[in-house]
Amino acid sequence: MNRMRSITFVAALTVLLVITACADEQPTSEVPPPEAAPVPADTFAVVDGWAGVASEGGTTAGYLTIENGLATADTLQGVTGEAMDRVEMHETYEREDGLRGMRPVEQLVVAPGARVRFAPGGLHLMLVNMDRALAVGDSVEVTLSFAEHGAHPLTLPVRNR
Questions:
Q1: Is residue 97 part of a domain?
Q2: Backbone dihedral region of 137: left (phi > 0), alpha (psi from -120 to 50 degrees) or beta?
């Protein structure tokens, strides 16, 4: 009886190990991700903006995409906003110790034909010391100031990350 239990246990363990080993295998043929659509020619736009929820007096992040389909670069010189003390541009980076950190970005050059994404884990706006709470469904206004294209107002709808 004990011999039969041992054989059953070994067989079950073998099946489990085979299944586990196969589950970790990656497919050998990878489908490359689709190429990003080219930036529309002769346009300069700020699109796809949104912000995270925040409490009154709190800080949240804002995200957006800048598309420069023109033949010349432009520089994002700063951002202002309503309902907050200030807006800071930051980038997330990996520190020498392997941890992630944030550092300020004073200005950002947007090259001709470039699409620059402000997204979680990368470039982002910090909306600091909110005058009011932001809940899903609310929105907040920011204005991006460019050297060549001037002020670009943008409404950031609030959503969960």
A1: yes
A2: left
